[in-house]
Amino acid sequence: MNPIPILKTDSQAVNQAFRIAIGDIFSNISPLKRGILEEEEPCLLAGMFFRYNHCFTRDISINCWNGASLFLPDICKNSMRSVLESCDDLVLPGQGNGEYWDSISWIIGTWEHFLLTDDEDFLRESYAISKSFMAYMEETHLGENGLFKGPSFINDGPASFPDAYVAGCSKLDWMLTDKMQNIQCLSTNCLYYAAYITLSKMNRVLFQEADPQALAKAAELKDRINDCFWSQELGRYTYIESDLQKCDRQEAMGLALAILYGIADQEKVESIYANVVTTPWGIASIYPVYERYQEGEHDQENFGRTCGTIWPQVNAFWAQAALAHEKTEIFDHEFNCLTQSAVTHEQFLELYHPITGARYGGMQEAMGSLKHMGDETMIVEWDSRPRQTWAATAYLRMNFFGIAGMRIDELQLSFSPYLPEGINAYSLRELTWGNKQLDISIRGQGGHIQSIQINGETKNSIKREASGHFEIEIELAK
User: Fold this and answer.
1) Which residues contact 448 (CB under 8 A, 6 or more apart)?
2) CA separation for the pair 3, 105 (Å, rounded)
3) What's the burial of 5, exposed, middle or buried (CB within 10 Å: 0-12/13-18/19+)?
4) How many CB atoms lie within 10 A of CB 327?
5) Are 320 and 398 within 8 A, CB to CB?
6) Do you find a cis peptide bond into 288, omega within 30 degrees of 0?
7) Strands (E), 153-299
8) Which of 52, 203, 310, 350 can pair with 385 through a Cys bridge, CB separation 3.0 to 4.6 Å?
């Protein structure tokens, strides 16, 4: 384990929220023997709730992606290996509980782990698995229209989908219907696009050349996403493509990935920001709420578990996408909301109420044992689980890759920092990148670099092959 990052700013709330994030992450480290792990190894579990007592493919992939690999390299690698399973003589990322559709995130998680750790041995191992996995998913889940089938990235319950897909279903059986098997969602297809791009990058590092086949497939998928999901009328991407029922609701993770990975051109990006709807506590995972959660006894203050509610890991991706396009007011809002939530609740909860910011698990169809009351599917309020790892690493993402502005690729680390309103001094120390130790000090306001020095030399990059200790001092101006 590397040193634990230490953050000190002139904002007491930010300092406290960062400490809470680190604490929540470490509270979820536990021995685990799963997947291809031959003996118990320390792993990063999904959360404190007893049913979250393993890693889950999408959770650990996002946790590595969010920056946990910087200071937990071995634990994150153990965790990524713990979700691998044998399938048809192949070793593939697990599809626990039948949730196959976003397990492709493992490819991106392993790449991000390499970028943050320099672990080329694990990259080589994961590349072989990733190639086989993508071929398997193409064979089993690629539709005739060129889009991948499967529900929405992260949104893993019936509350994520319109009535036409989940009517009469419980939390346990909603994904088993033919309707759900053939659904195609924005975020999931953006994730596959990112995976193709990632495969080419892996190939370039390991074999010194890009993968033209992966890039060609990425280009084809990008065209299909823009053709099928972009709505000129709405000025943004829609959510679901399907012969059964299309859905034009706003899907935040899909929008964020489309922006971050360049699926949306600049004109589309500006249109998205002009037309997107947010709540007092940030952008909701899916918006607006489905009417079934606000009918009758379910009043207008209720929201679905994954529609209308705030999921921090989604907000972190959205915030980073906004900052990449200098939408600083959006980043500030998301960062301040998550800071306040952590300080108020003294932990990073799973999800929050979009209007009040309260701990709130949202409305959703009950588990199978409580499924029916008479002839109607029972809708109940769920809990927001405590000390959720990907909510805590979401805050690290906003700090490492947002405020500190760390830009890491296969060649180097550079900086594009930004200090939100209310922060004028920001010191991030004891940060490890491969065999390099980083101490980052940022002063000023805004996001325009006035001066930057690395170990006293005016420059804005550290080569991957470098080693040793690096003092990075940055002065910003609006």
Assistant:
1) 476, 477, 478
2) 27
3) buried
4) 18
5) yes
6) yes
7) 184-185, 230-231, 236-237, 240-241, 250-251, 286-287
8) 350
Rounded-to-integer distance, Cα 253 and Cα 227, Å:
19
**Residue 161 neighbours by CB under 8 Å, 6+ apart:** 151, 152, 174, 180, 183, 240, 247, 290
Sign of the alpha-carbon torsion through 288, 292, 298, 300: positive
Distances (CA, A) of 356 to 169, 309, 331, 341: 29, 11, 19, 10
Residue-level pLDDT at 170: 76
Domains of the chain by residue range? 10-32+279-403, 405-478
User: Where is 32: in which H helix or E strand?
Assistant: strand 29-32
SS3 per-residue string spanning 126-141: HHHHHHHHHHHHHHHH
Tell me the two tokens of residue 213: 């086949």
Structural element, H or E, at residue 391 = helix 389-397
CA–CA gap between residue 425 and residue 432 (Å, rounded)? 21
Residue with tokens 């200090």, as numbered in its chain: 419
Contact 392, 412 (CB under 8 A): no
Secondary structure (3-state) at 62: helix
pLDDT, position 99: 78
Are 158 and 171 in contact by the 8 Å Cβ rule? The answer is yes
Question: How do 468-477 and 436-444 pair as beta strands?
Answer: parallel
Check residue 378 and give its pLDDT.
86
- Tell me which CATH code domain 405-478 carries: 2.60.420.10
**Rounded to whole angstroms, what are the CA distances from 33 to 50, 54, 113, 418, 447?**
16, 9, 21, 41, 45
pTM flag (> 0.85): yes
Q: Distance (Å, rounded) from C-alpha 411 to C-alpha 263?
A: 23
> 10-residue block means of pLDDT along the chain (478 residues)?
94 99 98 96 94 92 98 98 88 78 96 98 98 96 96 93 87 76 96 99 98 99 99 99 94 99 99 98 98 79 96 99 98 99 99 98 80 62 97 99 99 98 98 98 98 98 98 97
**Residue labelled with tokens 């689980």:** 385
